TrEMBL record:
Protein name: ArsR family transcriptional regulator
The entry's keywords: DNA-binding, Transcription, Transcription regulation
Signal peptide span: none
CDD domains with a match to the protein in the record: HTH_ARSR
UniProt cross-references to Gene3D superfamilies, sorted A to Z: 3.40.50.1360, Winged helix-like DNA-binding domain superfamily/Winged helix DNA-binding domain
Pfam name, any one: HTH_DeoR
Length: 254
């Protein structure tokens, strides 16, 4: 098998299934562990993945929305269900970009709410629901990821306040720092945090530690983390020391 083809298959495996061990990739592709290790070094040099102990995790910053939407759907649905239960009718909700926020939006139908978002997929999901007051933030379009970014988005957020912010992430470091792989999204996320009354981080198990080179915020900026699996002891301790409540959702079938 040509190296280029192996690289494509490795990235596809990591993006669809999350972090993977060298041994698992070796068996899946039918090549030696040494070959996989060389491939991982090359892909890391290209900025497409991050090597971790015994394996690797993909960098997901600019994956198309449609591709990311097919990954870990049951976990995202479980998180969305638990997060939606936090919201009461009559409240205002700020939804970040990302596929978990979209899964959450699907659970807001029929509610009497105000929803504010820069996520075009969320907007399209809720546009015909007459019970929801829908506010679409302005900004520059990121076509592949279906989001709006830039100074116009940030300026809009400075004029708004929401009872709840549901925030997405690329990774959560052991110290509780929230990270993102896409630098252009970070100022918008920070503006959302300032506009949110209660800040809820939506993070499936693959986000601990996940990926990301840009820091969005520290644990002190969060109120709640909703995840689908127990958080490792070091990260949980950091979150608890900052007063963050960790809610573990029961996984549902898709």
């Amino acid at each position: 098998m040509l190296a280029e083809r192996r690289h494509q298959l490795i990235l596809r495996a990591l993006r669809s299934g999350g972090p993977a061990a060298v041994t698992a990739l070796s068996e899946q592709l039918g090549v030696s562990p040494a070959t996989i290790r060389r491939d991982l070094v090359k892909l890391e040099e290209d900025g497409l993945l991050t090597r971790v102990h015994g394996g690797a995790v993909a960098e997901e910053g600019d994956q198309p929305f449609a591709e990311v939407a097919e990954v870990r759907v049951p976990a995202k649905d479980a998180i969305a269900e638990r997060a939606a239960a936090l919201v009461q009718d009559g409240q205002s909700v700020l939804l970040d970009i990302g596929t978990t926020a979209y899964r959450l939006a699907r659970r807001l139908h029929g509610r009497r709410l105000t929803v504010i978002t820069s996520n075009l997929v969320v907007y399209e999901e809720l546009a015909d629901d007459e019970g929801i007051e829908l506010v679409l933030l302005g900004g520059m379009l990121r076509r592949e990821y279906r989001s709006l970014v830039g100074f116009l988005t940030e300026d809009n957020l400075r004029q708004l306040h929401a009872d709840w912010l549901f925030l997405g992430t690329s990774g959560v470091r052991p110290g509780g720092q929230v990270m993102d792989t896409t630098v252009v999204e970070v100022p918008v996320k920070r503006a959302m945090i300032k506009a949110g009354g209660k800040v809820v981080l939506l993070a499936d198990a693959a986000k601990f530690p996940g990926t990301g080179m840009a820091k969005v915020c520290g644990p002190e900026d969060l109120d709640v983390v909703v995840t689908d699996a127990p958080v490792d002891a070091v990260t949980r301790s950091a979150l608890q020391e900052a007063g963050v409540e960790v809610l573990v959702a029961n996984e549902v079938t898709a």
